[in-house]
Amino acid sequence: MRILLSVAILTFLLASCSQAEKTKETSVKNQVSSDILKDENLIKAVLKPLSRKNVVVKQVKKVNLDVPGFFTFEVTLLDKGRNVEINKYIWISRDGKYLVLDMFSIKREKDKVLIRPLAPQKRIKQLPPKKEDLSWIKKIDEQLTKEGIPHVIGKGEKKVYVIWDVYCPFCYEHIKRLSSEKLAKEGIELHMIPFPVHGKASITGTMYFIKLSKEKGAEGALKYITTLGNGNFRDYVKEFEKESNAYVKGLSEKERKKEEQFVENLKKELIKGKVRGTPTIIYIPPNEKNNMGYKILGYKPLNEVVKMK
Question: Hey, what's the signal peptide range on this chain (predicted)?
Answer without folding.
Answer: 1-20
